[in-house]
Amino acid sequence: MRPAPISLPKHCRPTSAGSGNTLNTAKPHAAGRLLAALASLRADGPVWTYAGAAAGYVPDPDPRALPDWLTSAAAELVFRRRLVNRTAVFLVGSLAFPYVSQMYPPLDLDLMLVFFGLLFFVALTLAIVLDRRARNRQELEILKRIYSGFIPLPWLLAAALFLNGRLDNPKSIVYHPTTVENRFYQRGLLRVSRRLFVDGWRAGQKIERLPVDADDFDRFQDGDAVVVGVEPGVIGIPWYYGIYRR
Which residue, 232, 105, 230, 112, is CA-closest to 178? Predict the structure, then answer.
């Protein structure tokens, strides 16, 4: 049995070179160009190479020049995607730094956190400015280079504090007798800050602010005589080791 013929809508019917075809009637030269192209494709194959299905079967390489507005829009999209990725790397590093700083806390931890807070807000401000300038298609090169320098800073600072304490020699602990002067407690968004303020032993340092855990914070009161263990740090950043009762 012969299959029944399939009836296609008018707009889906194949092109033909017949005398009654609309293509020949409206544009007589179009049929000739189509036939010549098909003959060339059959004889020589495609002239261009094409990317696979994942790329959408587009010419690769594509020698066609894109209009200026399309080139600018594509560049803006690519830059903003990279900006989001770089900002994500910076934010993850910004979360890692406070965590690592509690593992081997330096004596000047509070000053470091203030410095890091300023660095964090400057970097985020640059990211916002870059995004707005990209939307307006303004010059980005100088600010982009400056912002790129901020991306690894949280990771470098966190790595420095970690290696400073991790590679330190336990035999180099120095114990300083002192007295608890005050206590400080503050609940933050991510963690609780507990500090014991003790008499300073460093030159020019009247008070040392020691980051302690909940047990040490509850164990010591104002006026207690204590001994504070400090390690010098493998890269020269002294860090708090522990506090003990005298």
Answer: 230
